[in-house]
Design goal:
Blueprint lengths: L6 H4 L35 E8 L6 E9 L2 H8 L4
Antiparallel strand pairs: 1-2
Length: 82
Amino acid sequence: MTQFLPPNLLALFAARDPIPYLPPAAKLPHEKKQKGYDGVGAFLDVFEICMIFNKDNNKPRGYAFIEYEHERDMHCKCYTEL
């Protein structure tokens, strides 16, 4: 059936040279050293921080609950740029 196609359409299906493999410039994400959570105390006057952890592997799930001493502290900290 391809014998009836014009040359410009046949060129779409022609084999091309393989893409050369280049190793990544930086380390892979699992090879990088993870930074801990720090700097929260400088910005917050909090009563309690409750981080949520995965029960299986005890790693943080990526969110936390923050309880302030006063409601005005919460509103003040929400609109402060870091």
